[in-house]
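Hey, I was hoping to borrow your eyes for a little while. There's a protein on my desk that I can't quite get my head around. The fold is given in discrete form, as structure tokens running alongside the sequence. I'd be grateful if you could look everything over and explain what you see. Here's the protein in full, and shout if anything looks odd to you:
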Amino acid sequence: MTDPTERDQGLQPERTALSWRRTALSSATVAGILTHAAIRTQHTAAIVPAAAALMTMSTIVVVAGLRGRALRRRTARLPDKVPALTNLAVLTTALAELVTLDLPP
């Protein structure tokens, strides 16, 4: 008989790792688009959302690596500050983009 407290993880860790990779890829895409826009417009304020997006992408890539490592080691929890840091990075990028949308060309 199996221990009722032992749970079969199945493919859940792999799906979670893949979702973090997709998130990192999409954040890299956003950073690339904003960087391209900043270069094309040559507006000084356009650098702010591009820099914020690059920082967000870096944060998400690091978190994805940490999460993947935790899943491989079967320690499913990340430190409590990691999701808050990731959310803060995404919100900072969104706010920076919203602030620069109204700027004249």
